[in-house]
Design brief:
Strand content: under 5%
Helix content: over 70%
Mean pLDDT: 93
Largest sheet: none
Number of strands: 0
Structural class: mainly alpha
Length: 223
């Protein structure tokens, strides 16, 4: 008896687009990681030029530098972002009974942190060193933990707001706050001389990749 084969249904366009985005982000992240790991000279030269320029500005503008230290150490600090994610997870359980989504949010933030620390240990890139530093930081430089954590948390929270139907002025305000936070924390790390520009770029890329993969997982398992 002949059995007719059954083909798998085609993936919806949104799913295909998200897969392509994730693939492109993974490729860009891997390329930048490789160039940083081998200390590619043209890239290192650009990093040094940017660092020298921004450090001169930081020394010449102590008021701006002090404001940036407050922003990076308190407002946009990774622990501030993680506490925000934890608060949203509690809200999801309490107000929406969305236990799976709350667990997904916390697990993604935890895995992103572990992934970031793993890359720091593997790449082991030294931070900029200055005779007259305006700030200090510990551990290896690549990728920027501040930039990656802000990207992951803000990206996930914006996606959740969109998923739960937030629109209008509240949505535009949330997007503006998210963009300013992600861009701002990266710029403060470069200005304060504790990260190279490519550390921040790597944090942004890897954070966006984590968000893309996490959203893909949530969409697959929760429809």
């Amino acid at each position: 008896m002949h059995t007719q084969s059954v083909e798998s249904p085609p993936r919806p366009p949104a799913e295909r687009r998200s897969s392509r985005w994730a693939g492109a982000l993974a490729l860009c992240s891997a390329l930048l990681l490789a160039l940083v790991a081998v200390r590619w000279y043209p890239l290192m030269t650009v990093d040094n030029d940017i660092a020298d320029t921004t450090h001169r500005w930081a020394v010449d503008e102590p008021g701006v530098t002090h404001a940036f230290r407050i922003l990076t150490d308190w407002v946009w600090d990774p622990w501030t972002m993680r506490i925000l994610a934890f608060a949203v997870a509690i809200w999801l359980v309490w107000r929406r009974a969305a236990r799976w989504t709350a667990l997904w949010l916390l697990a993604t933030c935890l895995l992103a942190t572990l992934f970031q620390q793993f890359l720091k240990a593997v790449v082991d890139r030294p931070r900029p060193v200055w005779p007259d530093p305006v700030d200090s930081a510990h551990y290896a430089a690549y990728p920027s933990g501040h930039a990656m954590t802000a990207t992951v948390v803000c990206g996930l929270l914006l996606w959740l707001l969109h998923r739960y139907g937030v629109r209008g002025t509240l949505w535009r305000t949330a997007v503006a706050v998210g963009v300013i936070s992600v861009a701002g924390v990266g710029l403060t790390r470069i200005w304060l001389g504790v990260h190279w520009a490519t550390d921040v770029a790597g944090g942004w890329l890897l954070g966006t990749l984590v968000v893309a993969v996490a959203v893909r997982v949530h969409t697959h398992w929760r429809g």
